[in-house]
Structure formats: C-alpha cells, structure tokens
Specification:
Layout lengths: L12 H7 L13 H11 L12 E6 H17 L16 H17 L7 H9 L9 E8 L3 H21 L3 E5 H4 L2 H8 L5 E10 L28
Antiparallel strand pairs: 1-2, 2-4, 3-4
Helix pairs in contact: 2-6
The structure holds flavin mononucleotide (FMN).
Length: 233
C-alpha cells in the first residue's frame, strides 16, 4: 500500500495544542504588520456555514489601542454593572461546569498570589482584561446578526484558528469574552452598526514568559467524560 503523504508536512498540530495556553501578560513590543497580516490571512481560511464567513475584525494597535483601552477601562470602571452583551450569556454554572470554572479561576488567582477572599485584588485582576493584559495588539471580533448562533460558532472557529496560527509563529493570544459583555461600549467606540454583534476580543503579542500569570496550565476532562461511542441498535 502506498504511503499516505501528510497534507501538512512539518506541522505538528498535536504538539501545538499541548503548548497552547491563554496568555495574560505580554511584552510591550509591537508585532510586525506583515506578521499580523499573515495571521489574519491564515485565519481567513476558516470554514463556515455555507462559506458565509460572518466574522469581521477591528484591528487595534499603537495609538488606536492606547485610546481604546483608556476609554473602555474608564467606562467599565465608571459603570461596572453596565453589562450589555450582544450574545446571550451563560444561564448559570452547575455541576462539572461550575467545578471547571472554579478550578480555572483558582489557578489564575493562585498564580498571582491573590487570596480567594480578596475581592478587591480579584476585581483588579479582572480589570486587566480592559487593558488587554498589556498586549500591543487586539482584535474585536464581530458577527452578522442575521447569521444567528451558527454565525457565532463560525466566529469561534475563526478565533481558534487565529490563536493557533499565532502560536505557531511564537505569538501568544487570549480570547476575551470580557470585552464582549460590554458590547454597548465597544459599539459606541467603534461606531459599529446594529447588525454587527460583538463576539469577543483577542489580545495578541509576544508573551512575557517569566510573568507568574503565564506559568499555570488548565486541565481538560477525560475523553471518557466527553466522547460517547454510539453502538448500532
Ligand atoms: C470565547 C472565550 C472567551 C474567553 N474570555 C476570557 C476573558 O474574558 N478573560 C480571561 O481571562 N480569559 C478568557 N478566556 C480564556 C479561558 O478562561 C481559557 O481558555 C480557559 O480557562 C482554558 O485555559 P487555557 O486557554 O489557558 O488552556 C476565554 C476563552 C474563550 C475561548
């Protein structure tokens, strides 16, 4: 039998997935424009429902990102309860979902030396989202309203491909739903039309690898908890 030629010679994707993590501290060093363009072009190959490609991205860097993060952080701090997500938020966390959420939160706060009872320190850590964790670039990802939940699914695939393409070039990333939950502020700052829904942001840049917040890794459920092999009746 003829040997199967790998479609992507040289790419060790499983190794990349082992290495990936959400970066929450970046070096203050801009990414080259051509690298950003390359990552966006790779992510553009993402499959979507009927190839509708509902995503659009607003790319922020330099003075524009400086302005955006100041405005966003200021408005969130002034009205922390002014949450206005375009997409429906999780209805609640129960059972394993709550356990996983708590474990991830605990690992994050522990890496920063924050005690669980220290609400002020936790709130300050949360506010780092609105500084994009110091990243030199950020993308705001939006979907077309009429494409519904599958449009958001397509955007999730786009975000994932962009993040993995970035890591493949040594660029760290984090998806940020925390930006999406203030969609009203984002819409106002970017002058988004009503038919574009804010999904999330992605902060990206070279990682500050020595920062303790980049030192922990999250677990995943066992395959046996996730995969249900269907037997013929
Ligand atoms: C759609 C999406 C939104 C997220 N939003 C945030 C966020 O707002 N702030 C944050 O610190 N992490 C955010 N994360 C990162 C998750 O917390 C992280 O992926 C999860 O805990 C697993 O950890 P890992 O990515 O390091 O493996 C988000 C991830 C996804 C996929």
């Amino acid at each position: 039998m003829a040997a199967v030629t790998p479609t992507l010679p040289g790419v060790d994707f499983s190794n990349l997935m082992e290495r990936r993590w959400s970066c929450r501290a970046f070096r203050d060093e801009p990414l080259p424009d051509d690298l950003l363009t390359e990552l966006l072009a790779t992510a553009q190959r993402t499959p979507s429902w009927c190839n509708s490609q509902p995503w659009q991205v607003h790319l922020l860097g330099g003075d524009a990102l400086a302005w955006f993060r100041t405005e966003l952080a200021g408005r969130v701090a002034a009205d922390p309860l002014g949450v206005a997500s375009d997409l429906p938020l999780p209805g609640g966390y129960h059972g394993v979902y709550d356990e996983r959420r708590r474990a991830a939160g605990y690992a994050l706060y522990q890496s920063l030396g924050i005690d669980r009872s220290d609400k002020a320190a936790r709130a300050a850590a949360m506010m780092e989202n609105y500084d994009f964790f110091g990243a030199p670039n950020a993308l705001i990802v939006t979907t077309d309203k009429a494409q519904g939940p599958y449009g958001a699914v397509d955007c999730g695939a786009y975000v994932t491909n962009l993040m993995n393409a970035a890591l493949d070039r040594g660029v760290a990333t984090i998806a940020q739903g925390a930006i999406g939950v203030y969609a009203g502020v984002v819409r106002d700052l970017l002058d988004l039309p009503e038919d574009r829904l804010v999904v999330c942001a992605v902060a990206l840049g070279w990682p500050a690898e020595e920062h303790p917040v980049n030192g922990f890794r999250t677990d995943r459920a066992d395959l046996t908890d996730v995969v249900h092999v269907v037997a013929a009746p």
